[in-house]
Amino acid sequence: MEYNKKRFNNKLPNEDGYFGEYGGSFIPPNLEEIMKEINSEYQKAINDESFLNELHDLYKNYVGRPSPIFYAKSLSKKYGAKIYFKREDLNHTGAHKINHCLGEALLAKRMGKKKIIAETGAGQHGVALATSAALLGLECDIYMGEVDIKKEYPNVIRMKILGAKVIPVTAGLKTLKDAVDEAFNQYLADPVNQFYAIGSVVGPHPFPMMVRDFQTVVGYEAKEQFLNLTGKAPDNLVACVGGGSNAIGLFTAFLDNKDIDIYGVEPSGLDINTDGQHAATLTKGTVGIMHGFKSYMLQNEKGEPLEVYSVASGLDYPSVGPQHSYLKDIKRVNYKHINDKEAISAFFEISKLEGIIPAIESAHAIAYSFKLAKEKPNSTILVNLSGRGDKDIDFVVENYGFGN
Ligand SMILES: *Cc1c(COP(=O)(O)O)cnc(C)c1O
């Protein structure tokens, strides 16, 4: 189990949850003890072979790991570099999110919690969590804005079939941010029986660390697979960044290898130069505190989050995981952006040239890999294909036709 231990043994964050100046824990006093307890139970769990064995058994026999790496021959021929996809879209429930949801649910169960709760925007995190709860016999409450419930109805149905309770949030704009606020309030009301399973590498310490550690399975698998496939490490890594979990999941195993260029791709939506029309936090944001942690964020003069937009609902978050802010400052990762139009065009291209319909989120990473391939012909590029596009097809066809 050497492989497991390495994944859970990272240099950062420090004991207080800081990656450089980012991260930490900015929460009400009654939650401080609870977060400390979650952290200490987490440390025990990852040093317990039986916990790691159970997690790995689920990854293998339930999720279908390891996910393959696929060499995209037609796209490579067209763009001039060798493009490879890490196929997280093939996981049970269709994306990388199941990797951390199972980890969080197993930890909640180990701690004797009865119920796991979370917010969801597009419903992807909600479905992965409801799945984990069903499997492990936990209750599950998912808070979701009324607007999103209408927009993402198939995912609402899935969560209900899986036995979760979907609780409509009617405050504010009735979308993700309001759902976060409501889930947080409900968590504060009973942090003893409930476990708040955060959906990305965000929130107060220890969540950015825990969710990252669970996702590092992606990169550690990929490192070995890529070496077996090509005899070398990849020259470039590319992943999309919403909160940043699929990206840090791929990047972590490769961070020490300075020969590898790493790219995180944010959504520039309709217009990167207009507030409210993009969600490119690391490109356009400033340092602030929101949802319990310090990071770059898109904020107004009062420090309130700005409205954000992307065609990919999984990417429109006004902050970003604190480790990404740190990796930006130390220049280890290059953060780039791709707009709606480029993402949709990549969505159709990989569909028609490789027979893979990607999530619109993942299409941002794919679109950037095309640009990179033109700049660095003959190099190898490993892209994290974070999820499949089944959830997006109705929306895409309604708004963009069939891409012919
Ligand atoms: C949720 C989601 C994302 C964005 O979340 P990260 O935490 O940035 O990875 C990306 N791709 C897919 C398919 C998603 O469901």
What does it look like?
The protein is of the alpha/beta class and 404 residues long. The protein folds into 2 domains: 151 residues, Rossmann fold, CATH 3.40.50; 215 residues, Rossmann fold, CATH 3.40.50. The chain has a 6-stranded mixed beta sheet with strand order 3-4-14-9-10-13, sandwiched between helices. A 4-stranded parallel beta sheet has the order 7-6-5-8, with helices on both faces. It has a two-stranded antiparallel sheet with strand order 1-2. Helix 3 crosses helix 5, helix 5 packs across helix 6 and helix 6 runs parallel beside helix 8. It is globular. It starts with a helix and ends with a helix. The relative contact order is 0.15. The mean pLDDT is 96. The structure holds pyridoxal-5'-phosphate.
Tally of individual helices: 17
How many domains is the backbone divided into?
A: 2
Q: How much helical structure, as a percent, in the residues?
A: 40-55%
Name of the CATH class of the largest domain: Alpha Beta
Q: What is the 3D form?
A: globular
Heteromolecules bound:
pyridoxal-5'-phosphate
**How confident overall, as mean pLDDT?**
96
- CA radius of gyration is 20 Å
- The largest beta-sheet arranges its strands as 3-4-14-9-10-13
**CATH topology assignment of the largest domain:** Rossmann fold
- Number of E strands: 14
Determine the N-to-C terminus distance.
49 Å
Poorly predicted residue ranges: none
- CATH architectural grouping of the largest domain: 3-Layer(aba) Sandwich
Strand proportion? 15-25%
**In this structure, how is the largest beta sheet organized?**
6 strands, mixed
Structural class: alpha/beta
